[in-house]
Amino acid sequence: MTKFRAACVQLCSSDSLEDNVRTVSELIREAKSKGAEFVATPENTTLMAADGGAKLDRSFSEERDPALPGFRTLAEDLGIWLLIGSLPIKVSDSKTANRSFLLDPKGRIAARYDKIFLFDVDLPNGESYRESNTVVGGEKAVTGELPWGRMGLSICYDLRFPQLYRKLAQAGSSFLAVPSAFTETTGKAHWHVLLRARAIENGTFVIAPAQGGTHANGRRTYGHSLIVSPWGDILAEAATEPCVITADIDTAEVEAARARVPSLLHGRAFSGP
């Protein structure tokens, strides 16, 4: 099996878990109706709260999360591989993990990934974010096995740390998932170039579902969900509204790109500066 259809679900998640679950479930079903065998949703799929404290107050442990069982049932009902880009999973009284779930067509959890790099940033326009105040960073790179090859998992701000993606590629990943909620400011500046760079430098497909629009606290996200080829070509792109995009994936393109530029084979140890 070397060919399949992938879909990104783009959202504008609110602070209503119920509304978000209903919307994303409808769009996942739409993706299936368009022939998708693998569907990915963005970071913060079920909740874009006004601030970190509000998100913490409305988060649950993995065992008690109210949305996860429904997503598992949906994956099984539709017979698809489903990546829930992230849910806020409470791991202590003061912290959550920003956790992705890869679900197989039987509704089983095939892989979990906790976002490693946390978004603690002050932007020139006055926007300020301190994800680490209420989120604990992950400590382990994670891959998941799909019928078509291995997928490396990541979330949003991870995108700015190329060493993570090189490790995922060296571990055999043919696909890199980057579910995100990029701010409008940083998205306009860097979203496309970073995603294309991660695809090109690793010879992998990149599948990046995104949040787009205005959320509960007035924060604006960039949208523009992308599916990128191993040669850096944009195969599908959304605008800014909630929607589904699809692209047909041929894993033979991974080996072709890596044969043309075999940089994964050319790593060397070096010293300095």
How many angstroms does the end-to-end distance come to?
45 Å
Strand numbers in spatial order across the main sheet? 5-4-3-2-1-16
Beta-strand percent range: 25-35%
Fill in the CATH topology. Answer: Nitrilase/N-carbamoyl-D-aminoacid amidohydrolase
Q: Supply Rg.
A: 17 Å
Q: Give me the CATH architecture, please.
A: 4-Layer Sandwich
Helix content: 25-40%
What's the number of extended β-strand segments?
16
Q: Any idea how many domains?
A: 1
Short description:
This protein is α/β, with parallel strands linked by helices and 273 residues long.
Describe this structure in words.
- It is a single chain.
- The chain has about 270 residues and is an alpha/beta fold.
- The protein has a single domain, classed as 4-Layer Sandwich (Nitrilase/N-carbamoyl-D-aminoacid amidohydrolase), CATH 3.60.110.
- Helix content is about 25%, strand content about 30%.
- It is built from 6 helices and 16 strands.
- The strands form 4 sheets. It has a 6-stranded mixed sheet. The protein has a 6-stranded mixed sheet with strand order 8-9-10-11-14-15, with helices on one face. A two-stranded antiparallel sheet has the order 6-7.
- Strand 10, helix 5 and strand 11 form a beta-alpha-beta unit.
- The protein is globular and about 50 Å long.
